[in-house]
Amino acid sequence: MHHLGVVHRTVDRADPAAVEALSRFGVATVHEAMGRLGLMRPYIRPVYEGARLCGTAVTVLLQPGDNWMLHVAAEQVREGDVVVAGCTTESEDGFFGELLATSLRARGARGLVIDGGCRDVDDLRRMDFPVFSRAVNAKGTVKATLGSVNVPVVVANALVNPGDVIVADADGVVVVPAARAAEVAEASARREAAEEGKRERFRAGELGLDMYAMRGPLAELGLTYVDRIRGTR
Known about the structure:
The chain is α/β, with parallel strands linked by helices. It is 30% helix and 23% strand. It is built from 8 helices and 11 strands. It has helices at 16-22, 27-33, 68-74, 98-106, 121-127, 181-203, 208-211, 215-220, and strands spanning 45-46, 53-62, 81-87, 94-96, 112-118, 131-136, 148-149, 153-155, 158-160, 165-169, 172-176. The strands form 2 sheets. Strands 1, 2, 3, 4, 5, 6, 7, 10 and 11 form a 9-stranded mixed β-sheet that branches. A two-stranded antiparallel sheet has the order 8-9. Strand 5, helix 5 (121-127) and strand 6 (131-136) form a beta-alpha-beta unit. Helix 2 packs across helix 6.
């Protein structure tokens, strides 16, 4: 249930050491290590190539076409936070641009994830202020309707609680619950170590068919190999 018109000033953020540990891994690794959970829908994309971020969530519930609550949220941002904004209904208006990015950066924000539109992309690229959004849209917004800050929000089908860890890169955006941050960082490290071993075997020419013992199950399902196809004249 969404509560409108409320700003929660106290946020239990994930442990900074766990956030730092998670920042070393890509979204795909974190998602797999967490049990294939936490991914936002793939329509949330970086607004410029090379954008990536990792930080703790300050959440915002916006009203369509209204960015008032992003200004309210800026006051609640601390060093290392990521602003994560959902909307009460679908909206692709340009909620966010270079001026708000300048404000958020001054507060220590590491970026923005928004289930809505963003504009001033060239400026954001020059600033290297990472934004992951539903759309790029020059259409402006008003400041007329209350939403909320630091409440649980659903952003692109993912539940985000204030203080959760947000990891975003070219592969998408994943949400790690604050209480699981250290555990997921450790699982990510184990997964990456295992993948490096497989990578070396692939480089050496070994096939996944053999590495993953696939031949038996394939044969049981009836996969057959044919050396020559007999043509007809």
